Amino acid sequence: MKKTTIAFLSLLLILAVSACSSDTGSSDDSNQSNNTETVELTFSVWGNEHHVAMYEELLEEFYEDHPHIKVNIESYPHADYQQKMSVLAAGQELPDVGWVAERMVPQFVENGILRDVTEITEDPEFDFEDFYPSTLELWQHDGKLLGFPFSTPPMIMYFNKTIFDEAGVKTPNEHAEEGTWTWEQFEETAKAISSGEGANRIYGANLWIDWTNFATVLSHTWSAGGEIFNEDMTEFKWNSPEGIETFKMLQRMMFEDKSHVPPGENIPFETGRVGMFTFMYSYIANVRGIDDFEWDIAPLPSGPEGTAPLLGQAGLVAFEGSEHPEAAMELLKFLASKKGIQAQSQFFVPPRQSVLESDEFVNVPNNPPRESIERALLNEMDNGRIYPLHKDWTQIESIIVSGFDELFSQSATPEEILQKMENEINPILQK
User: Fold this and answer.
1) pLDDT tens figures, 129-180
2) Partners of 192 in the beta sheet?
3) What gap in Å lies between CA 12 and CA 313, rounded to an integer?
4) Per CATH, is 156-308+379-429 categorized as 3.40.190.10?
5) 38-153+313-357 belongs to which CATH class?
6) DSSP secondary-structure letter at 292?
């Protein structure tokens, strides 16, 4: 009888613990669904005030279905962004969701700070099939999807049509229509439209958004049949006849013709003192408000191998370590949805087919003409080249930037600069 009583009491104890556990689980689910406490998320970008304003307006729709989530947008300079994220990762203070550029992906993947977001693709309403497959390759690693692209633009050329009209020179689009828009013609055109002296100097071209960003000049080498690296990124290939000619073109334009904005000087396209400026479509946010002169966009010049614009990619990711992972995934899913990509297409070339082909993308107020957008963007998507990717890219890029510093200071020849780059970069690639 004593043994029976003990067994009975033990059974009661087990049932009580089980009931307790069950009640706790139900209570947690209920608390989570009925929780009225505000959850704060951080969303990091490197955009300007126009991009931030766009997101703040877009998020008002997100809040309608997620009233207990508050999103704080933090913007950092593009040049500092990768280092900033690395510092935040070390301190376990990463944002919940953020932008990531293609050049950052290898390091962030190696560091394990990008969350697997494959589960979002399983939601039928998200319509994952709407994404162009080619835009997803950068974000697919070991069977996981680590982000969604929101911008996939080929590099384009902005040009001051008023300067061209006043100089009586054919525009890039006129040359493109005639099949004569080459890098040689670009150099001649830049020289032809340059004029004035000192603070009133009109420069024919500027290939830099800032003096540490050499992205545009890669297209000059590629279009001539040259390469920066070999296919598997184990050998530096820019020290070649094609690479040397790229550096010599810059040398001529900056120091002989004086048709290019001088090294170190900041003369934005919006000032009206630059005839041609190359950068991504996202820069159009700065250009749409110009009313002092007429402007338009055109494709980059071509070389013997055709056009080879840098195909920039930026994606939306969820960072590991979020205190509110479910809320972060909801935010990411909204930003990468059709509605989110449509809103972002004000500034970025969209990766969703339904958005790229929409009138809403083309007919944004103060946009260039449809034919210019088709020529510079849509027709160039298949010609784009992805930015070089390597886990030690920051170190490699620093060496390349130092080489350009030597070119800008005229302290070494193009041949000497590229040989030095090769000597310093190859050991990094081959280690």
Assistant:
1) 999 887 888 899 999 999 999 988 889 999 999 999 999 999 999 999 999 9
2) none
3) 61
4) yes
5) alpha beta
6) S
